[in-house]
């Protein structure tokens, strides 16, 4: 920068020659220099102010934006960054065939403690013990002060408990959001759904895994993130399920039974519309699996699937249907029914030592439930063909239904198959299966002879199984089962308008060490309705029932399982959209009325 001198020589000489004071020139130049300096200083000051203003504006803008972002997001507890697998917390809903929710998820919180952040461990321990009576104050305090840095207190909290813990106000108490499985219908369909629990857990989420029933069998599908928003649609009808459970529970109580099971199945699709077992439980608070004793004593025991019982005379229709299908007999063929029947060292008797012989038609053998008549039919068939038929009906294999409990419930059958086994298994003695095995076999007969595979998932098309018996044979078998209700041992099963057909079965209960109880039975009624156009199969099994309203205890299926099944049909058929069919009355039964 060029600096102008305060006393320029030329101007000074000129001023002296002109008689002027040279000092005024110096003062004027000094004034001009100061003005230039002030202008420069003012410009620098303005630039600094502008820069500071922009800086403050930018800082406050960033801070305001961050505060707005924090205010608009859900609060989460801080977590320690670590390397590990991501926890998949989402799980699909389970719904009935009409879309009504059977199982869903609910947002809840877990409570954990960062002990190093606790201000007053003793006060916190006392407050938590007050909120959660099952927690011990001394134990909590010891765990808070034993050197550990992290501690789970509760895995699931109610909203009220969350608020109470909030009010303690200690920074060491932290909440971890998570989803838990909720069954909004309580005990309804408990043995089908099974239950769920927590798997891998973190402070911000927890994995929900199936522990039993459909929840465990379909666990991969329910946990698939790609299908988390798509409910699993079951074959159950929630309204029908409720009616079946209510009637079954009342029947177990009235018949003084240890337990029972009921299965309602569509004969064309194999869909299980209702499956109930009693006693039952609440999957929201599922009890622990028993570690000792008889598993069937537990409320978790699913008698419909896990109960492996001798199913008694319900098997007799299989012998009759096979013999007719092989062309050996017709429903009107007369067979030997003279009791008792001696076979080697074995004596085949009828119930209460009746003798229905000397001859009975095949249809009467079923209606009267003749052991001897069934034995002669089975001998005509032979053991090899009988075994092949049982296998084709699915009576030798565990049910493929979508329940984990079904995998281990394989029917029990003799290792050897001499003639005496051919005889006894024909009337359901010496061979065991589950009520669900029986339901599938009866559905195979009811739908015209096509093998049925049971399912708990909704289907839209009929089954495409193998043909086991001809359509004509199946119709004749249903006709014989109808006579059991109209003329035979299941007269209490008659439900006006629904033409029930079925077969009773009363089997002595087996003892663990071998042999049979003399005063304990398993009673079953296997029914089909309506008989003229079968749509559904209903199996009702009662474990150790006894009917006490008469002069002496009655333990036959006709007095125990049959009335329970009849009430289920009476309640469920209208719910299934089935209108009662009014049978025409004979003319001689009508009364003419004139005005």
Features:
18 strands; alpha+beta; five-stranded mixed beta sheet
Question: How is the topology of this model organized?
Answer:
Layout: H1 9-17, H2 22-72, E1 94-95, E2 101-114, H3 121-131, H4 137-144, E3 150-157, H5 159-168, E4 173-182, H6 190-193, E5 195-201, E6 206-212, H7 213-217, H8 219-223, E7 232-233, H9 238-254, E8 259-266, E9 272-278, E10 309-310, H10 316-325, E11 334-336, E12 341-343, E13 346-348, E14 359-361, H11 362-368, H12 371-381, H13 383-392, H14 404-407, H15 419-426, E15 432-433, H16 435-446, H17 471-486, E16 501-510, E17 516-529, E18 536-543, H18 561-575
Parallel strand pairs: 1-7
Antiparallel strand pairs: 1-2, 2-3, 2-4, 5-6, 8-9, 8-18, 10-15, 11-14, 12-13, 16-17, 17-18
Helix pairs in contact: 3-4, 3-5, 9-18, 10-12, 10-17, 11-17, 12-15
Gyration radius, rounded:
42 Å
How many helices? 18
CATH architecture label name of the largest domain: 3-Layer(aba) Sandwich
Mean pLDDT: 90
CATH domain fold name of the largest domain? Beta-lactamase
The domain count comes to: 3
Q: Helical residue percent? A: 25-40%
How large a portion of the residues is in β-strands, by DSSP E?
Answer: 15-25%
**Name of the CATH superfamily of the largest domain:** DD-peptidase/beta-lactamase superfamily
What structural class results from the helix and strand content? alpha+beta
Largest sheet: 5 strands, mixed
Can you tell me the CATH class of the largest domain?
Answer: Alpha Beta
Molecular shape? elongated
């Amino acid at each position: 920068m060029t600096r102008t001198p305060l006393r320029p020589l030329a101007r000074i000489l000129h001023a002296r020659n002109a008689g002027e004071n040279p000092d005024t020139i110096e003062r004027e130049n000094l004034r001009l220099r100061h003005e230039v300096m002030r202008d420069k200083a003012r410009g620098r000051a303005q630039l600094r102010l502008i820069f500071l203003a922009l800086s403050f504006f930018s800082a406050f803008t960033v801070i305001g934006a961050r505060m707005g972002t924090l205010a608009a997001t859900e609060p989460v507890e801080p977590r320690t960054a670590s390397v590990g697998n991501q926890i998949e917390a989402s799980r699909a809903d389970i719904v009935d065939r009409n879309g009504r929710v059977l199982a869903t998820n609910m947002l809840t919180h877990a409570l954990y403690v960062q002990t190093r952040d606790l201000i007053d461990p003793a006060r916190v321990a006392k407050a938590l013990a007050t909120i959660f009576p099952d927690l011990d104050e001394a134990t909590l305090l010891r765990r808070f002060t034993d050197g550990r840095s992290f501690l789970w207190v509760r895995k699931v909290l109610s909203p009220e408990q969350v608020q109470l813990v909030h009010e303690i106000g200690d920074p060491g108490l932290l909440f971890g959001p998570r989803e838990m499985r909720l069954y909004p219908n309580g005990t309804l369909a408990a043995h089908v759904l099974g239950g769920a629990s927590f798997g891998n857990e973190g402070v911000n989420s927890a994995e929900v895994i199936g522990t039993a029933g459909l929840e465990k069998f379909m666990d991969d599908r329910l946990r698939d993130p790609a299908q988390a928003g798509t409910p699993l649609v079951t074959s159950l009808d929630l309204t029908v399920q409720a009616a079946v459970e209510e009637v079954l529970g009342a029947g177990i109580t009235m018949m003084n039974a240890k337990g029972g099971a009921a299965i309602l199945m569509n004969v064309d699709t194999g869909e299980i519309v209702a499956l109930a077992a009693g006693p039952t439980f609440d999957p929201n608070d599922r009890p622990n699996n028993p570690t000792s004793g008889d598993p069937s004593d537990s409320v978790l025991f699913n008698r419909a699937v896990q109960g492996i019982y001798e199913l008694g005379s319900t098997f007799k229709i299989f012998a009759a249907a096979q013999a007719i299908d092989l062309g050996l007999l017709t429903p009107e063929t007369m067979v030997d029914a003279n009791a008792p029947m001696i076979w080697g060292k074995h004596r085949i008797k009828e119930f209460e030592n009746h003798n229905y012989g000397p001859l009975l038609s095949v249809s009467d053998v079923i209606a009267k439930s003749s052991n001897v008549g069934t034995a002669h039919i089975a001998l005509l068939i032979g053991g090899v063909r009988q075994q092949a038929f049982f296998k084709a009906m699915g009576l030798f294999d565990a049910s493929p239904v979508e329940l984990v409990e079904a995998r281990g419930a394989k029917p029990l059958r003799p290792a050897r198959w001499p003639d005496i086994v051919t005889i006894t298994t024909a009337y359901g003695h010496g061979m065991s299966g589950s009520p669900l095995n029986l339901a599938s076999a009866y559905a195979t007969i009811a739908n015209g002879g096509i093998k049925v595979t049971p399912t708990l998932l909704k289907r839209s098309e009929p089954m495409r199984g193998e043909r086991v018996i001809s359509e004509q044979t199946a119709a004749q078998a249903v006709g014989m089962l109808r006579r059991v209700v109209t003329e035979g041992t299941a007269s209490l099963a008659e439900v006006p308008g629904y033409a029930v057909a079925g077969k009773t079965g009363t089997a002595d209960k087996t003892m663990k060490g071998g042999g049979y109880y003399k005063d304990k039975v398993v009673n079953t009624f296997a029914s089909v309705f309506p008989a003229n156009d079968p749509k559904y199969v209903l199996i009702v099994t009662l474990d150790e029932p006894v009917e006490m309203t008469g002069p002496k205890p009655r333990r036959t299926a006709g007095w125990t399982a049959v009335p329970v099944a009849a009430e289920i049909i009476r309640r469920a058929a209208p719910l299934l959209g089935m209108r009662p069919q009014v049978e025409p009355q004979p003319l001689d039964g009508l009364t003419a009325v004139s005005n």
